Amino acid sequence: PYYVGINQNLFLEASLHSSDPLLELFLDTCVASPTRHNFTTGSYALIRNGCVKDPTYAAYSSPYRHILRFKFNAFQFIQSNPEVYLQCELVVCRAFDYSSRCHQGCVQRSKREANS
User: Fold this and answer.
1) Per the database record, which ranges form the ZP domain (predicted)?
2) CATH code, 8-95
3) Domain map of the chain by residue range?
4) Burial annotation 27-49 (CB, 10 A radius, 16+ → b, else e)
5) Which of 99, 70, 67 has its CA nearest to residue 86?
6) pTM
7) Residue-wise pLDDT tens digits, 11-44
């Protein structure tokens, strides 16, 4: 566990351990939950499909493609649960492949129309 006060900045770094220098990381989705077993019901999205959902989220530049750095303000769920769990989905892409998911950025998913 990592302890941080409410509204303090929480800084995170993710790195890919690979000998291939032409791989890069992309943060696709990052969701917080009051429980470690359920990241859908009652969860809070910081980023979804590469789109920033939380106004306190900020990405930081990194000198390396295989390292991601970002921050957000620590918060507490309404149920006064003292713990918040974070689950992030990262994508590994070939650097300079401009058709890859890493270079698409925010992808707005269109909702399907319900037919009668």
Assistant:
1) 1-109
2) 2.60.40.4100
3) 8-95
4) bbbbbbbbeeeebeeeebbbbbb
5) 70
6) 0.82
7) 999 999 988 989 999 999 999 888 888 888 878 8
